[in-house]
Amino acid sequence: MAGVAEAFHAHFTDHAYPMHVHDTWTLLIIDEGAVRYDLDRHEHGALRGFVTLLPPQVPHDGQSATPHGFRKRVLYLDDTLLDAALIGRAVDGPEIADPPLRQAVHRLHESLRGPGDELEAESRVALVADRLRRHLLGREPVAAPVRDRRLAHRLRDLLERRLAAGMSLREAAGELHAHPVHLVRAFSTEFGIAPHQYLVTRRVDRARRLLLDGLPAPAVAAATGFYDQSHLTRHFKRVVGTTPARFAGSNGRTADS
Asked: Which homologous superfamily does the CATH classification assign to the domain defined by 4-136?
C-alpha cells in the first residue's frame, strides 16, 4: 500500500536485535511486555500504551526489558508520509504518549489484514501520519475540523459513481485536486462518517437489495465491490447484524424473526 512499505507482527522471548538501521520510518506499538533499545547512543524504552517512532538511517538496537519477552506490531513508513527533515525531532523524542494515536495505529493494522479495504487503510495511514507530524512539530495532535462542503459533496458524488469499482484515496485526491488528509477530514466533518465507512455502508445497502432479488452471495459480492464472499460477509454482518445468507433466507427480516 502507498506509504506503507511493510507490516510486521512478532512475539519474541529471547531475541535481541543488534545495532542496525532502516531506510524507512519504524512505527511501533507494544501489545505485551516492553522493549529496551538504544537510539543514537541514548537509552530508551518502548512501552505498552505508547507509540514509538524510530527515524530512518539512525542506528538502534532492541531487546526485551523483561524475562517474559514482548509482542509487537510494526509499520515501516516511507518518506512520502514523513519528511526527512523531521528525523532530528524523532531522535529527540521517539516515545509518544497519545492513547488516541495508539488506537488509530491499532485500527490501521486491522485494516491491513486482508484485501478489499484499501480506501480505509489509506485514510487511516494518512491521518496517523498527520498526527505524527503534528507531534514532531510540537503542534496540537488533533487538528481543527475541516469545513469544505463543496469538496465533501464532490467526493460523495465520486464515491457513488465508483461504488462497485472502488478507488484509492490517492486517486480521489488526484481527481479532486485535494490533499488526502484534507479530503478525509472535509468529508467526515460534512457527513459525520469517514469516506471508507460511507463506501462500505452504501455497498451493503446495494447488497441487501440484490440478495432480496435472489442473487447468490458470491455474485452479490462481485456486483457490489467486495473482494470476495468472505469480505462481503464480514462487513454485512457488522452493518446489518446478520450474515447475507440469513438475511436472504429471512426475506429481509432479522435473523431472529
From this structure: Regulatory protein AraC (2.60.120.280)
Condensed to tens digits (0 to 9), the pLDDT of residues 36-62 reads 999 999 999 999 999 999 999 999 999
The whole model's pTM is what?
0.91
Residue spans of the domains in the chain: they are 4-136, 149-159+170-192, 198-249
Q: May I ask the CATH class of domain 198-249?
A: mainly alpha
Three-class SS state of 129: helix
Q: Where are the alpha helices (DSSP H) in the chain?
A: 87-92, 99-111, 118-136, 149-161, 169-176, 180-191, 195-212, 217-223, 229-240, 244-249
Distance (Å, whole) CA 251 – CA 156 = 30
Amino acid at residue number 236: F
> What are the Cα distances from residue 28, in Å, to 15, 61, 81?
17, 13, 16
